[in-house]
C-alpha cells in the first residue's frame, strides 16, 4: 500500500479459470483499496464496473437510468446471456433440439470449438445439424473442415494490425503496424470480409462510405467529425463500426 508505483493486470489465466468473476473482483479490490488507481504509475480499469449484487441476479445491462431491465437467457438451455455471451458448453444443447427458437446458423471467427470445447464429438454433431455454418480463419482447423463455407483470412503478418486495448492512463496511445508480407491469393483481412458480408446483405454500401471517404481526404479531424455525425444520424453506422 505504501509503494509509490504499483500496477496489476489480469489475463486469460484468471478470466477463463474457476471462480473467475470472484478473482477478477478481488484483483481490482487490491489496487482500489490501496489507492493504486487512476494516477501515474498505477492501474486503470479498462472494463466497466458493474454492481455484483445486480449482476448476480442477471442484471448486467447498461441501459438508461430507470429503464426496466430484462434478464436475457438462451432459448433452449435457459442459460444466462451476459453482455451478449452464453456458456460455450451449452451451444450443442441450443442446436440439437426441435425447439422453434433453436440456433440454426453459426459464424465462427478465429476459433476452433470442435477441438477446444468439452465433448467435441457432440459439438461436431451439433455443427452438422446447423442449417448454415461459416468459418473465418487463417488456418483450416477442425471446425473449418466441418463448415459449409470457409472464408480464408490473411495472417497477422499480411495485414495491418492494431492495438484495441488502448485505454492507458494518463496518456492514451494507439499502435498501427503495416503488413510485412503480401497476402496470399484468395485471402482478405477480417475487416474486409466483414464489410463485404454487410454489403452483400444490403446493410451498408457506397452511399454510407462516400461522405466518410470525402472527409478522410481532408484529414483525420474532418473524418472524426464526419463519422460522429453519421453515427448520430444513422445508428446503423455505429452498430457495424469496428
Automatic annotation (TrEMBL):
PROSITE patterns: MOLYBDOPTERIN_PROK_2 (PS00490). GO terms for molecular function: metal ion binding; oxidoreductase activity. The keyword Ligase does not apply. It holds the Pfam family Molybdopterin. SUPFAM superfamilies: Formate dehydrogenase/DMSO reductase, domains 1-3 (SSF53706). Keywords: Metal-binding, Oxidoreductase. Residues 33-170 form the Molybdopterin oxidoreductase domain. Transmembrane segments: none annotated. It comes from the Bacteria. One of its GO terms (cellular component) is membrane. This is Molybdopterin oxidoreductase family protein. It comes from Pseudomonas aeruginosa. The lineage of its organism: Bacteria, Pseudomonadati, Pseudomonadota, Gammaproteobacteria, Pseudomonadales.
